[in-house]
Design brief:
Elements: H1 23-30, E1 38-39, H2 51-59, H3 72-82, E2 89-92, H4 94-106, E3 112-115, H5 122-129, E4 133-136, H6 147-153, E5 158-164, H7 176-184, E6 188-192, H8 196-199, E7 213-218, E8 231-234, H9 237-246, H10 254-265, H11 267-289, E9 295-296, E10 303-307, H12 313-322, E11 325-326, E12 338-342, H13 346-362
Bound molecules: pyridoxal-5'-phosphate.
């Protein structure tokens, strides 16, 4: 029996998400652990997760029992952290899962979502999986969003717009006024604040004022929990209720729930690291700017996108990889001549900068 014939025809040429290098690949390719590699390709916290998390997980005894399906304690803790009613909070296995669920809840095949490339790849990934019509409104040369063009593109079946703020991989913010205008279109507007702790800009205070605003956040970036997969969304009350109905009950596992509670108990410790990373972002930006042919874009997140169009970006990425340093390259319009570098620890950033200088000394410009 040929099962290939039974696959949805519209998924036959579905492009896989090209993820950063996984820990297993690192082990195989380099014979090194994640700790030994200078891993600046996935915007993780370079200091890892807080010690309280490690201690609590080593003492945790209830791995044999299903976790709380409604994540009550976790929602209460997150509510204390962000100052929003727990009933509005929905927790997912990474904010990725919430992107998927929002699309499943609102989009039937043929309905439209507005995507603002270059941006985070999972919006179009899940939209395509849901059979959505993806309306792409490209950002300008400085990666700013064109609200007039967005408004003009809206059709009766358009439901949703995703805006990452700050945007990944470009690092820039859209103004609060810009978001207000998007909300005034009446579409559901998902403001993805995965990097909020690094930017300090939020529209969380508008929750309750707009019934078409959804805010997403993550514990992967600032809190060092990327491997445990926890993100949350803040929704209009009725939408939160629908989200909880369609969400699979146990996607936020027991270890993840323990870890988030301990990470929030370590808030001061983590926010200190965030401050260090923000300082390091400026120092790394200044150093990159001094390298001929490397043009870093200003960033409000924990990474810096660099234009390397006077050189060969994939070649730089490969040469860095050969030295055990991982950075990110995207095979996408406007990004092929760029590399994205996550902010590492100071000593890692120093090695990165010296390595780029060395590589550019060795490699002829294109
Ligand atoms: C803008 C943005 N949103 C969401 C995510 C996904 O985060 P999580 O690990 O919580 O699924 C990422 C991760 O890179 C991101 O850059």
């Amino acid at each position: 029996m040929e099962l290939n014939d039974k696959i949805r025809p519209d998924l036959k040429d579905f492009p896989p998400y090209s993820a950063h290098t996984s820990p297993d690949t690192l082990k195989e390719q380099f014979g090194l652990s994640v700790e030994e590699i200078i891993k600046l390709d996935a915007n993780e916290n370079p200091y890892g997760c807080p010690p309280r998390v490690v201690q609590a997980l080593s003492k945790f005894k209830s791995y044999g029992v299903y976790p709380d399906a409604s994540q009550l304690e976790l929602r209460r803790r997150i509510s204390d952290y962000i100052g929003v009613d727990p009933e509005r909070i929905v927790i997912g296995a990474g904010s990725d899962q919430l992107i998927d669920l929002i699309i499943r809840l609102m989009i039937k095949p043929g309905d439209g979502i507005i995507n603002l490339p270059p941006t985070f790849g999972m919006y179009s990934f899940y939209a395509r999986l849901a059979g959505a019509k993806i309306i792409e409104i490209k950002r300008d040369a400085n990666f700013q969003v064109n609200n007039a063009e967005i408004e003009a593109s809206i059709e009766p079946e358009t439901r949703l717009i995703f805006v990452a703020n700050p945007n990944n991989p470009t690092g820039n913010l859209i103004s609060k006024q810009g978001i207000k205008e998007l909300l005034q279109t009446g579409l559901a507007v998902v403001v993805d604040e995965a990097y909020y702790e690094f930017s300090g800009q939020t529209v969380m205070d508008w929750i309750g004022q707009y019934d078409n605003l959804i805010v997403l956040r993550s514990f992967s970036k600032w809190a060092g929990l990327a491997g445990l997969r926890v993100g949350y969304g803040v929704f209009p009350a009725t939408l939160a209720d629908y989200m909880m109905r369609i969400k699979d009950p146990y996607s936020v596992n027991a270890a993840a729930q323990v870890a988030v509670i301990e990470a929030l108990e370590s808030k001061a410790y983590l926010l200190n690291q965030v401050r260090d990373i923000i300082n390091e972002r400026q120092r790394l930006f200044d150093q990159l700017k001094r390298i001929e042919g490397i043009e870093p874009y200003p960033s409000d997140a924990n990474f810096i996108l660099c234009d390397c169009s006077r050189h060969n970006a994939p070649l730089i990425v490969n040469e860095l990889k050969n030295r055990g340093i991982l950075v990110r390259w995207f095979d996408a319009p406007k990004l092929r001549q760029c590399i994205r570098i996550s902010i590492g620890r100071p000593e890692q950033n120093d090695i990165l900068v010296e390595s780029i200088k060395e590589i550019l000394g060795e490699v002829k410009p294109w």
